[in-house]
Design brief:
Cofactor: FAD
GO molecular function, one term: NADP binding
EC number: 1.-.-.-
Oligomer: single chain
Keywords: FAD, Flavoprotein, Monooxygenase, Oxidoreductase
Number of strands: 13
InterPro entries: FAD/NAD-bd_sf, Flavin_mOase-like, FMO-like
Shape: globular
Length: 330
């Protein structure tokens, strides 16, 4: 549905939006823009997430704290050697300090509405469960064109939504779910065979078994692009597509099944360590450079994209660093 039709659908209606991340925030912002305080948009938030106005905390762009090679030295990595393990262990307090520094700034506007999450900003970035607020989000909360409710449970009734611990119902003409979708199902439903469905997505106690976040070792004919989360999904998917095309062209060979499974398990350990209950998302948010390095080496490309030692260590890595990446032909 386009923006115009969406506005027509919501205009003059009592709208309830379920969710608290990007989709829900954007829908609520559009609704508030159309209806104002005459018909406030109600947001039902069951899980509090870090919702930030921008990527600058106390005058420091947080990408300088998290999106360079130095930042990755503070984190344990899959397949790291002893020296990198020692560095990550010793520098762990600095990682905690970075997180608290940014949290102290971003929690200021959220405290007023009791929306400070119970998990750290570091975990939010590790899982890519973070969102930028739409323009004037807090202004709309202040004026009342968006109303926040934080129930643990809710149910539907004839003319709206019944919210836990509220005697009156939330009257609604339209209820919109901004809760995303289950990526596991997208992969599983490719198959009709129950056997392959189980192999494709693995156990719920582990990550989805994808080598380089693309290929299942036991189903090498299937490549998945877009399941694993990153801070910038578009360019990550493009890089994976280049990697896959180079593989199909015969540019490199996959390791044997045992070696691929070992690599998957190493990534799984890191995801469980830093992503907590959200490890199943297979997010590479805080190990994006390390991950890109592996793809580059597979394609015969130089993973070092900066000029000079200090630039390589401290400069921010972004999509532009991989714009001229061309796999070597065999």
């Amino acid at each position: 549905m386009g923006t115009r039709k969406g506005h027509e659908m919501m205009k003059g209606k009592r709208v309830t939006v379920i969710g608290s991340l990007k989709s829900a925030l954007d829908v609520a912002a559009e609704c508030a823009k159309v209806n104002g305080t005459d018909h406030p948009c109600t947001m039902l938030v069951r899980t509090k997430h870090w919702i930030i106005p921008d990527y600058v905390a106390w005058g420091v762009h947080i990408s300088k704290l998290y999106l360079n090679r130095f930042a990755e030295l503070l984190i344990h990595k899959p397949g790291e050697g002893f020296l990198l393990w020692i560095l990550a262990t010793v520098l762990t307090p600095l990682m905690w300090l970075f997180s608290k520094f940014a949290e102290s700034y971003y929690s200021i506007p959220t405290k007023k509405y009791d929306m400070v999450p119970d998990h750290s900003l570091f975990e939010a970035l590790a899982t890519c469960l973070i969102a930028i607020t739409p323009k004037d989000h807090y202004k709309r909360l202040e004026e009342g064109s968006i109303v926040l409710k934080k129930p643990k449970t809710f149910s539907f009734c004839k003319d709206g939504v019944l919210v836990e611990d509220e005697s009156s119902r939330t009257k609604s003409d339209i209820v919109i779910f901004g809760t995303g979708f289950k990526g596991d199902d997208k992969i599983k439903n490719v198959f009709t065979s129950e056997y392959f469905r189980i192999i494709a997505i693995g156990s719920t106690s582990s990550t989805v078994p994808l080598y380089r976040q693309c290929i299942n070792p036991k189903i090498p004919q299937l490549a998945v692009i877009g399941y694993s989360e990153s801070i910038a999904n578009l360019y990550t998917s493009e890089l994976r597509a280049k990697w896959l095309a180079h593989f199909l062209y015969g540019g490199f060979k996959l390791p044997n099944v045992a070696a691929m499974q070992k690599n998957i398990f190493e990534w799984e350990k890191c995801m469980k360590r830093y992503s907590g209950r959200y490890f199943r998302r297979s997010s590479i948010g805080l190990l994006h450079i390390w991950y890109n390095d592996q793809l580059c080496r597979d394609m015969g490309c130089n993973p070092r994209r900066k000029k000079g030692f200090f630039a390589e260590l401290f400069d921010i890595y972004s999509p532009g660093d991989y714009i001229d990446l061309h796999p070597k032909k065999q």
